[in-house]
Amino acid sequence: MAVNTGKCPKCEQILQHVDVEAIEIHKDLKRAFHGASFLCPHCHSILSVELDPIALTADMAKTMAERLKKG
Ligand SMILES: [Zn+2]
Fold first, then answer.
1. Does residue 1 lie within any of the structural domains?
2. Can you give the residue range of the structural domain that contains 33?
3. CA 51, CA 30: separation in Å to the nearest integer?
4. How many domains does the chain fold into?
5. Would you say residue 39 lies in a domain?
6. Ligand 1 center to residue 64 CA distance, Å?
């Protein structure tokens, strides 16, 4: 097992894992992307926000299917 040394910048606990939450990424007050926020499991500070790769792929497949249907 890996020995982790990375610390949360807020509570300074060493993180063995992070928690993930689904979060919407908005542009001009409308949902633009599905995102994922990565949280410190100790103090729940957001460490990072990224695009959700699984939702992004699903959205892309749905958009492609809709465009193919239109012809
Ligand atoms: Zn923390």
1. no
2. 19-70
3. 16
4. 1
5. yes
6. 40
